[in-house]
Amino acid sequence: MHIYSFEKLETWQKARVFRKEIYLLTKKFPKEELFGLTSQLKRSASSIGDCLAEGSARITTKDKAHFITMSYASSIETVNHIIGAFDLEFITEEEYEYFRLKLDEIANKLNALKKAVLKS
């Protein structure tokens, strides 16, 4: 089996784990939120890794950096959804802090990755 370049990225690996954790977290959200916050949170969390994967197939440095920027934007969107989930009391303060720290780590790694790509 071929291993694609994005699969080797620590940032993508962390985004992969994060997506799984978000999917597990949203199982406890109210059923009436299935097409609301639950769907949006799952989509934005998935998009972090999706953009990294898609960007890895791009040819130019500028194009690769653009997809890393989109991944970063998805991580910030996910922060907003985590805040909403906390405000609506779908998650505990402990869960909120855990996921915020995970997102901070991913966002910092995305910024570092973008700088590295632009230097190459």
TrEMBL record:
Protein name per the record: Four helix bundle protein
Annotated PANTHER family: FOUR HELIX BUNDLE PROTEIN
InterPro entries, alphabetized: 23S_rRNA-intervening_sequence, 23S_rRNA_IVS_sf
Species this chain originates from: Pedobacter xixiisoli
Pfam families: 23S_rRNA_IVP
